[in-house]
Amino acid sequence: MSISIDEVSFAAGNIVIVNGVSLTVEKGKVLGLLGPNGSGKSSLLRLICRLRRVRSGIIRLGDDDISSLPRAALARRVAFVEQQSTTDTQLTVRDVVRLGRTPHRGLLSSWGAGDDAAVDEALSRVGMQERAGQLWQTLSGGERQRVHIARSLAQAPSELLLDEPTNHLDIQHQLDILSLISKLGITCIVALHDLNLAAMFCDRLAVIQKGEVVASGAPEDVLTEDMIGRVFGVRAHVQKSAVHGRHHIQYLMD
Q: Sign (positive/negative) of CA torsion 136, 192, 99, 84?
């Protein structure tokens, strides 16, 4: 397994936010992390990249316990794309993507041809190479998200974590971003709110409620009418789409 989470718990003060979570993600696969607001999705992502410290349990990347990995080694391996990230500094698109090379460079090392190649490839993969010289502040929301993903790809990670990457984007950019993520070929965990998008683009799903995994598996096994009602509190009709072959959810009015 690329990512293995074994009975992991996390608390803020006396409030348990992640409670005994166990999950695995196969190499190169996309796991969609679903759940209501405040269910613990973002906290779990931060635990994986060690921005938070587990109270109990073990998180492994391959055979390595993340608690034993040097910070620099973990930064070279795991990239994290947060919901919102902005700056008032006048940076070009290329400047932002260049930041992804930071974990690979020592304090005294100079910028090299390999760094340029990594940045160019990352920009190309997200379709932003023609915007490389454009100021970050002039980009649309969808374009900024593409640049954030390019920055993470320039980091050359083996695991990529994304927290609501489609938040506040229009439907075209939501589809573009998730299609891009699904085709990267690296291990991804992506927290999402939209169940239909999760069904379309994720290999497997895990549903978190009140800090605990209440369902996990293939999208067609997880996205049931019963689960949607219990976890999200809405009535739904679930059927296989004649268009893309994945499950499709229709929400029903009371």
A: positive
Which are the contacts of 207, defined by CB distance < 8 A and separation ≥ 6?
34, 35, 213, 214, 215, 216, 222, 227, 231
Say how many domains are in the chain: 1
Q: Which amino acid is at 77?
A: R
Three-state SS at 104: helix
List the beta bridge partners of residue 11. Answer: 16
- Partners of residue 160 on adjacent β-strands: 79, 188
pLDDT tens digits, residue range 232-251? Answer: 999 999 998 888 888 899 99
User: How many CA atoms does the CB half-sphere of 52 hold within 13 Å?
Assistant: 20
Nearest residue to 143 (alpha-carbon basis) of 160, 127, 122, 167: 127
Q: Concatenate the DSSP letters of all residues of 9-49 into one string.
A: EEEETTEEEEEEEEEEE-TT-EEEEE--TTSSHHHHHHHHT
Question: How far is the first Cα of the chain from the last one, in angstroms, to the nearest whole number?
Answer: 43
Tell me the pLDDT tens digit for each residue of 4-47.
Answer: 999 999 999 889 999 999 999 999 999 999 999 999 999 999 99
CATH, residue 27: 3.40.50.300
Residue 186 has which token pair? 């690296």
Average pLDDT over residues 204-211: 97
Q: Which structural domain, as residue segments, surrounds residue 246?
A: 3-251
C-alpha 148/C-alpha 126 separation (Å) is: 10
